[in-house]
Design brief:
It is built from 10 helices and 10 strands. The protein is an alpha/beta fold and 204 residues long. The radius of gyration is 16 Å and the shape is globular. The mean pLDDT is 95.
Length: 204
Protein backbone atom coordinates (compact mmCIF):
# COMPACT_ATOMS: atom_id res chain seq x y z
CA UNK A 1 0.00 0.00 0.00
CA UNK A 2 3.12 2.17 -0.08
CA UNK A 3 4.79 2.22 -3.47
CA UNK A 4 8.40 3.32 -3.94
CA UNK A 5 9.87 4.14 -7.33
CA UNK A 6 13.55 5.03 -7.63
CA UNK A 7 14.89 6.71 -10.76
CA UNK A 8 18.49 7.47 -9.98
CA UNK A 9 18.43 10.19 -7.35
CA UNK A 10 14.68 10.76 -7.60
CA UNK A 11 12.52 8.75 -5.19
CA UNK A 12 8.73 8.82 -5.62
CA UNK A 13 6.62 7.52 -2.74
CA UNK A 14 2.94 6.87 -3.41
CA UNK A 15 0.23 6.21 -0.83
CA UNK A 16 -1.75 3.50 -2.59
CA UNK A 17 -4.89 2.75 -0.62
CA UNK A 18 -7.40 4.77 -2.64
CA UNK A 19 -10.40 2.70 -1.59
CA UNK A 20 -9.84 3.96 1.97
CA UNK A 21 -8.89 7.54 1.03
CA UNK A 22 -5.23 6.59 1.56
CA UNK A 23 -5.79 6.46 5.30
CA UNK A 24 -2.65 5.18 6.98
CA UNK A 25 -2.40 1.93 8.88
CA UNK A 26 0.40 1.19 11.31
CA UNK A 27 2.03 -1.02 8.71
CA UNK A 28 1.94 1.78 6.13
CA UNK A 29 3.33 4.28 8.60
CA UNK A 30 6.18 1.93 9.50
CA UNK A 31 7.00 1.53 5.80
CA UNK A 32 7.03 5.30 5.30
CA UNK A 33 9.39 5.70 8.24
CA UNK A 34 11.64 2.98 6.84
CA UNK A 35 11.80 4.73 3.47
CA UNK A 36 12.43 8.18 4.96
CA UNK A 37 15.18 6.89 7.22
CA UNK A 38 16.90 5.04 4.38
CA UNK A 39 16.65 7.78 1.76
CA UNK A 40 20.11 9.25 2.35
CA UNK A 41 21.07 8.64 -1.28
CA UNK A 42 17.97 10.40 -2.64
CA UNK A 43 18.60 13.79 -4.22
CA UNK A 44 14.88 14.55 -4.46
CA UNK A 45 11.81 12.87 -3.00
CA UNK A 46 8.19 13.25 -4.09
CA UNK A 47 5.30 12.20 -1.86
CA UNK A 48 1.93 11.70 -3.53
CA UNK A 49 -1.23 9.60 -3.34
CA UNK A 50 -3.29 7.42 -5.64
CA UNK A 51 -6.87 8.43 -6.35
CA UNK A 52 -8.63 11.66 -5.42
CA UNK A 53 -7.39 12.05 -1.82
CA UNK A 54 -3.77 12.46 -0.72
CA UNK A 55 -4.52 11.00 2.70
CA UNK A 56 -7.33 11.05 5.24
CA UNK A 57 -4.77 10.61 8.04
CA UNK A 58 -4.86 7.62 10.35
CA UNK A 59 -7.08 4.65 9.59
CA UNK A 60 -10.06 5.18 11.90
CA UNK A 61 -10.09 1.73 13.47
CA UNK A 62 -6.34 1.79 14.11
CA UNK A 63 -6.51 5.39 15.33
CA UNK A 64 -8.94 4.33 18.07
CA UNK A 65 -6.59 1.48 18.96
CA UNK A 66 -3.70 3.87 19.53
CA UNK A 67 -2.26 4.76 16.13
CA UNK A 68 -3.42 8.37 16.48
CA UNK A 69 -0.84 8.96 19.22
CA UNK A 70 1.91 6.71 17.87
CA UNK A 71 5.45 8.16 17.94
CA UNK A 72 5.81 6.94 14.35
CA UNK A 73 4.15 10.14 13.05
CA UNK A 74 6.79 12.34 14.64
CA UNK A 75 9.55 9.93 13.63
CA UNK A 76 8.38 10.14 10.02
CA UNK A 77 8.17 13.91 9.84
CA UNK A 78 11.52 14.26 11.61
CA UNK A 79 13.23 11.88 9.19
CA UNK A 80 11.81 13.75 6.21
CA UNK A 81 12.78 17.14 7.61
CA UNK A 82 16.37 16.00 8.16
CA UNK A 83 16.83 14.68 4.62
CA UNK A 84 19.05 17.01 2.60
CA UNK A 85 17.09 16.01 -0.51
CA UNK A 86 14.49 18.34 -2.02
CA UNK A 87 11.17 17.02 -0.69
CA UNK A 88 7.93 17.79 -2.51
CA UNK A 89 4.43 16.87 -1.35
CA UNK A 90 2.41 16.51 -4.56
CA UNK A 91 -1.09 16.64 -3.13
CA UNK A 92 -3.41 14.84 -5.53
CA UNK A 93 -6.35 15.71 -3.27
CA UNK A 94 -7.34 16.47 0.30
CA UNK A 95 -4.75 16.35 3.08
CA UNK A 96 -6.19 15.53 6.51
CA UNK A 97 -5.23 14.69 10.07
CA UNK A 98 -1.86 13.26 10.93
CA UNK A 99 -0.85 13.11 7.27
CA UNK A 100 -0.26 16.85 7.57
CA UNK A 101 2.99 16.09 9.37
CA UNK A 102 4.72 14.52 6.37
CA UNK A 103 3.56 17.33 4.07
CA UNK A 104 4.69 20.03 6.50
CA UNK A 105 8.12 18.37 6.70
CA UNK A 106 8.52 18.71 2.93
CA UNK A 107 10.18 21.72 1.33
CA UNK A 108 7.41 22.35 -1.19
CA UNK A 109 3.71 21.53 -1.34
CA UNK A 110 1.86 21.59 -4.64
CA UNK A 111 -1.82 20.70 -4.91
CA UNK A 112 -4.62 20.13 -7.37
CA UNK A 113 -7.53 22.61 -7.46
CA UNK A 114 -10.24 21.85 -4.93
CA UNK A 115 -8.01 19.93 -2.53
CA UNK A 116 -8.67 20.77 1.11
CA UNK A 117 -6.39 20.85 4.14
CA UNK A 118 -7.67 20.17 7.64
CA UNK A 119 -6.33 18.78 10.89
CA UNK A 120 -9.23 18.00 13.28
CA UNK A 121 -7.17 16.81 16.25
CA UNK A 122 -8.94 18.95 18.83
CA UNK A 123 -12.37 17.74 17.71
CA UNK A 124 -11.15 14.15 18.02
CA UNK A 125 -9.60 14.73 21.43
CA UNK A 126 -5.92 14.43 20.49
CA UNK A 127 -2.93 16.72 20.52
CA UNK A 128 -1.15 17.17 17.18
CA UNK A 129 2.29 15.66 16.83
CA UNK A 130 4.79 17.96 18.59
CA UNK A 131 6.55 19.44 15.56
CA UNK A 132 3.46 19.96 13.38
CA UNK A 133 2.18 23.22 14.93
CA UNK A 134 5.68 24.71 14.90
CA UNK A 135 6.22 23.85 11.23
CA UNK A 136 2.78 25.14 10.29
CA UNK A 137 3.31 28.34 12.28
CA UNK A 138 6.65 28.91 10.52
CA UNK A 139 4.82 28.76 7.20
CA UNK A 140 1.58 30.66 7.86
CA UNK A 141 1.83 32.30 11.30
CA UNK A 142 0.13 31.54 14.62
CA UNK A 143 -3.33 32.92 13.84
CA UNK A 144 -3.85 30.87 10.69
CA UNK A 145 -2.38 27.81 12.39
CA UNK A 146 -4.98 28.20 15.15
CA UNK A 147 -7.65 28.65 12.49
CA UNK A 148 -6.83 25.12 11.33
CA UNK A 149 -5.94 23.39 14.60
CA UNK A 150 -8.33 25.13 17.00
CA UNK A 151 -10.95 26.54 14.65
CA UNK A 152 -11.23 23.21 12.83
CA UNK A 153 -11.43 24.92 9.46
CA UNK A 154 -11.13 23.09 6.15
CA UNK A 155 -8.91 25.28 4.02
CA UNK A 156 -9.31 24.98 0.23
CA UNK A 157 -6.07 24.76 -1.73
CA UNK A 158 -6.75 28.15 -3.27
CA UNK A 159 -6.93 29.79 0.16
CA UNK A 160 -3.99 27.73 1.43
CA UNK A 161 -1.99 29.15 -1.48
CA UNK A 162 -2.70 32.70 -0.32
CA UNK A 163 -1.62 31.67 3.19
CA UNK A 164 1.68 30.23 1.95
CA UNK A 165 0.79 26.70 3.01
CA UNK A 166 0.61 25.59 -0.63
CA UNK A 167 3.30 26.78 -3.03
CA UNK A 168 1.61 26.09 -6.35
CA UNK A 169 -1.79 24.90 -7.63
CA UNK A 170 -1.51 22.54 -10.58
CA UNK A 171 -4.11 20.78 -12.79
CA UNK A 172 -4.37 17.07 -11.87
CA UNK A 173 -2.98 15.92 -15.20
CA UNK A 174 0.15 18.07 -14.68
CA UNK A 175 0.76 17.37 -10.99
CA UNK A 176 3.50 14.75 -11.21
CA UNK A 177 5.22 16.28 -14.22
CA UNK A 178 5.34 19.61 -12.36
CA UNK A 179 6.83 17.90 -9.30
CA UNK A 180 9.47 16.23 -11.45
CA UNK A 181 10.33 19.53 -13.17
CA UNK A 182 10.79 21.17 -9.79
CA UNK A 183 13.32 18.44 -8.95
CA UNK A 184 15.29 18.77 -12.20
CA UNK A 185 17.83 21.42 -11.15
CA UNK A 186 18.53 19.69 -7.83
CA UNK A 187 19.08 16.37 -9.58
CA UNK A 188 21.44 18.00 -12.10
CA UNK A 189 23.49 19.99 -9.57
CA UNK A 190 26.58 18.66 -7.78
CA UNK A 191 25.47 17.00 -4.54
CA UNK A 192 27.53 19.34 -2.35
CA UNK A 193 25.90 22.39 -3.93
CA UNK A 194 22.34 21.05 -3.62
CA UNK A 195 22.97 19.89 -0.04
CA UNK A 196 24.56 23.21 0.84
CA UNK A 197 21.58 25.18 -0.40
CA UNK A 198 19.20 22.83 1.40
CA UNK A 199 21.07 23.44 4.63
CA UNK A 200 21.06 27.21 4.16
CA UNK A 201 17.29 27.18 3.62
CA UNK A 202 16.44 24.74 6.43
CA UNK A 203 13.79 25.67 9.00
CA UNK A 204 14.63 22.74 11.31
Amino acid sequence: MIELEQEGGLWTVTLARPDKANSLTGEMLERLVEIAESAGEARALILTGRGKVFSAGADLDEAKAGLAVSPLWERLSGALARLPALKIAALNGTLAGGANGMALACDLRIAVPGAKIFYPVMKLGYLPQPSDPARMTALIGPARTKLILMGGQRIPAEEAYTFGLIDRIVPPEDLMETARRLCADTLAAPAEVANGIAGMCSRD
